[in-house]
Amino acid sequence: MQGVIVMRFFHMSDLHIGKQLHERSLLDDQRHVLTRVVEYVREYSPDAVIIAGDVYDKSLPSAEAVTVFDDFIVNLADTGTTVMLISGNHDSAERLNYGSRIFTKSNIHVAGMPPRNSGDHLKSVVLKDEYGEVTFWLMPFIKPGYVKGVFADENAVGASTDAVGDCCSSYDSAVHAVIARENIDYSERNVIVSHQFYTNGQTQPSRTDSETISVGGIDNVDVSAVKDFDYAALGHIHRGQKVGYDYVRYCGTMLKYSVSEREDNKALLMVDMKEKGKPAEITELKLDALHDVRLIKGKFDEIVRQYSDKNTNDYVSVVLTDENEVYNARQTLIDIFPNLLSVSVDNSRTNREYVEEYDDVNVSLDELFAEFFRRMQGRDMSDDERRAMEDVINISCRQ
Ligand SMILES: [Mn+2]
């Protein structure tokens, strides 16, 4: 590739193709942003494009979602770049792995399955620049249980049972062990591609509402597992950020996948590797969306006045602060915001209810349902309704 003297690659992750935002399909948005990525590839000629997991939103993606990704991969391959991708926690490892051996012939390297027995190893891809070789290690999403067999086998040829227990007792130990057994030569340049929840000591990455991560952080892996690499291309966390080191990066999603990401700047990372020991140069290539995601908060009348002639196609979440309920607010707002995501109320009543909910967790099921009924219907239950509810609760609690 002319003009490229150092290794250059793009880092992206968490495409979540097929994802919906408040029941709204994002396939057009995804097609649009992936087209932009291919334009960037033509413009900057990276040697490789890395996709660090969560290609699809579901392990069984829809036919349309598969087509969107297929078109993207074919367009990437047409540019002549090398593609490397791993499975994330949302992908089916087996499905993503399908056809991977034949794809390799088109410079598309897919690592769907993590190693499962002692004969399996991480897939690696070696590319060269004028400073020599760079080895890319593709490590699919790992749960301790997935890789138990790797160490159980090794146990059979002499390792202690304790070592097996240690290797697979947590996400942290499993990932450390899977990397350690590759005997990587860190005097050369190495890049790891990984999809895990990396933390830096007690410091957690900044999260969003669109990730699926265990509460309490049992799935976390300490960043020490990947600190010896020259670059860690990470996926899983949907907000772009570094973890402890400049070269350990989450690139984040290409699109805003929740209202909590409304202020995020979504970008593709372009990484230019330098010689061993010199920090890589990292550039953010901005990704403009077909629709922005916004939160608009205020009094109904003011919102109507301010936005009725704006013709915005953005995905908008509205929070009304009126003290009194607004009649048919939703219908009026949909006329103003055709891509309305949600309408909610934030006033002194909802704040009080919020506090009460958390103050009073010891209410009985009867009381809880009575409160739910009151909020939904705007009145208390009649005696007949109350008896019917009590019957239902009694029957279901006896089973
Ligand atoms: Mn994800």
From TrEMBL:
Keywords: DNA recombination, DNA replication, Endonuclease, Exonuclease, Hydrolase, Nuclease. It comes from the Bacteria. Residues 7-106 form the Calcineurin-like phosphoesterase domain. GO terms for molecular function: 3'-5' exonuclease activity; endonuclease activity. Residues 291-376 form the Nuclease SbcCD subunit D C-terminal domain. CDD domains: MPP_Mre11_N. InterPro entries: Calcineurin-like_PHP (IPR004843), DNA_Repair-Maintenance_Comp (IPR050535), Metallo-depent_PP-like (IPR029052), Mre11_N (IPR041796), SbcD (IPR004593), SbcD_C (IPR026843). One of its GO terms (biological process) is DNA recombination. Belongs to the SbcD family. SbcCD cleaves DNA hairpin structures. These structures can inhibit DNA replication and are intermediates in certain DNA recombination reactions. The complex acts as a 3'->5' double strand exonuclease that can open hairpins. It also has a 5' single-strand endonuclease activity. NCBIfam families: sbcd. This is Nuclease SbcCD subunit D. It comes from [Bacteroides] pectinophilus ATCC 43243.
